Each structure stands twice: as structure tokens, then as C-alpha cells.
Give the backbone structure.
Amino acid sequence: MNDRRLTQYDRRSFAACSAVAVTGGLFSGPFVESQGGEIVAGSVIKADAAGDGVADDTGPIQAAINKVGAAKGGTVFLPAGSYRITSGLKCRWSNLRICGEGGASVICPTGDFDTISFNADHELRQNEIVDLAFDEREKTGGFTLAADSVANLTVERVHGFDGWNGWHLHNFNYVTFNDCRFEYYRGNVYGKASGGGSEGGRSDVLRLFGVVHAGNGSSTMDGLDIDGFVHTVSGAGVYLTNVGGRGLWARNSIHAENNPSFFTFTDLEADYPGDEAIRLEAGEHFYFNNTMVHASRRAAPNIYLGKGVEGVSFTGGFSTGSHQSGIEVEGRSVSLSCMHFHANSSPEFGGAKRKYPGILLGEHSRDVVITGCHSGRESKENWQLCGCQIRNGADGFAIVGNNFRHGVTKGVVNEAGLGDTKLVANNI
């Protein structure tokens, strides 16, 4: 069983924690074995677990967590091995670090529970999960990581695979994911951030750097679900692929006091989603740079901006191969600049050729500016109805200086007419 587990992911050690523990380069205190003796704050405790993939290591790991918590902080170190657990590891203290040796330190949960959870009757601060892998093929429910009412939580160089759900944060402040991969999960969502709801509260500052959520398209899991009062979400190099459901989804289904707002994403890539690659239903101030989305596989556009959305900017990047349009806009104050739209209305996954445009402005859209965009490519077959279609009822639009001439049946189909607040000019 061990050999099979250790071939499922990159076995390179992301950080040799045992060596660093001795030299003091990563931790603030001495390395302390967990057998007996007083544990002081900042200690590094090596869990007395078998790590053979057979014994139940839940108790020894939880005991190490409890000792570090009682000492007001420190590190629980899991050396290379496969750690089978049969119930969740509960973290109820601040200043707690759980660390392994990268892909060589594998937690293997069995059952329906959250593998690691941070939850207490007070806010938990300054916690970290670093250099661990999670082989969750024997999970039947729960999240790999769940955290409620946390501040300054860091998840770094973590790899989870074959799990149920990935991670869920609620009512948090300043959480960072860096260089993490969650692959081939089977539940409902890879990553979920929520704030507020019936019990109140809010969430602020979620940072995602080099995060991969990857599926095989067989489930309907969403890639990244932002729900409710969640403000200030930033991402760079986020990759959502084959997730089965939606890629990035912003909404307020929990009826929080405020909607998701203040998003900034650079180099977001979302391809082969089951539904929309990006779906924004509620909120304001969304900024995307160099966004690359491709091939929604069911009856949906690649990008959907709902009428509850205001203040959205896309600069650069492309939207291609969608079942329907490349982007559908029903929201307000939207700017599209220097984007490429081609090969949408694709028949690849059952769509109809020349039924949908590259860009669709819906009847509720208001104050939309589109400039410097290309819809269609000379060197590629293009199935789009037209470069841009403007539905009757749309208002406050300026479609200026775009190239809609390649591979489409028409440049602009304007059903809304022209006027002082409706401008279509200087397009080719």
C-alpha cells in the first residue's frame, strides 16, 4: 500500500524539515521528542506515529497537536511516511504549525470527516500547514482542510489528491495558499470561501498564488466558490482545469450582509469546465488581467457576468471553444480590453455552429465598453455567429476599435439600436 501511495505525486521534498529543525532555519525553538518532558513555546514536536500506512496514527498526531497547543505554540513535525487516520485532526489553538517533508509525508484519512480543521470558540491566529501531502482516496465525505474564524492562516506546498472536497474557509481574515495542488476530488467543490450568513460575520483577504485545482471532468465539482461577504480576493497563476462544474464562481447564496467584492486575478486559467469557466452572479469591483478560459462543456458561456454584478474589467487574455458565447454580459460598468474571442459556439461538446457570438451583451447590460478586442482568427475555423451581439434592451454601451472580421458571419449584430448612449463605431 505504501509504494502505491508514494507514486501518486511528486516525491521531491519541498523542505527537509528535520534538517531545518536542527539548524533552526525554519523554526524558533528546539527539536523536542514528544515522549515526556515539558514542552515550551516554539518547540518542534515529532509525532510518535508509526507512519506505515497500516497503524491508526490519529491518536499520536492529535496528542502532538494538543501538546503544542498547550505550550502556546510550536510545530508538529511529520517525517516521511504514510499516516493513516480514522477521524479528523482538530486544531483549537493559535501559533500552531503542522509540517512534513513535502510529498514524502502523506496523511491518509479513511471515512467521512474534515481531515484537518481549525475551529474554536475564539479566533485562531498565526497557524500554518506546510509541506504535506494528502492521499484521500478512502475519504467518503468532508474537506481536506476546514477553517472557521481564523486569521493569518498559511497553507504552503500542500498536495491533496483523490479526496472528497478540498478546502473551506468561513469568516476569516488574511489567508494565503501558496504552491498548492488539489487534484481528482469527487465531492462538490475544490475550494470554498464564505463569509457572513445567518450568524453574521465577514471574511477579508484571501491570497492564492500558484494554486491548482484539477479534475478529470467526471464529477460536477466547482473549482473556486466565493460565497457571501468575502472581500479582497487576489490570485496569481491560479489554474482551474477539468473541474466538472464551474471554474470561478462568485455569489451570495447564503444571504450575507454584503456581496463578494474587490477581486484581482492575474494569469487565471480555467479550461474544460463543465459549466462556466467564470461565473460572477453578485458583487462589485472584479479585475482580471491576462485571463485564459477555454471550452465550457455544457450549455453555458465561458464567462458569465450576471445582472447583480457591477464594476468588472477584463484586460488581455482569451476566451475560446465555449459551448455558447465567449462572454455573456448582463451586469453594469463592464470593460473588455484587448481580449481574443474565437472558436466559440463550438460543436465539440454538442454546441451548435454559428448560434452564439464571441461577445454577447444581454438585455440587462448597462455601461459596457469594448475596445481593442479580436473576435475570430484568420487561421482558424470559427463557429461564432458574429463578433459581438447586442440584445434589445441593452443600454450605455460603446463598442469601438475592435477587429471582428475573421471567420465570423457578421461583425456586430445590434438589436438595441444606436443613440446618445449607444455607440458602435470604428470596428473592422
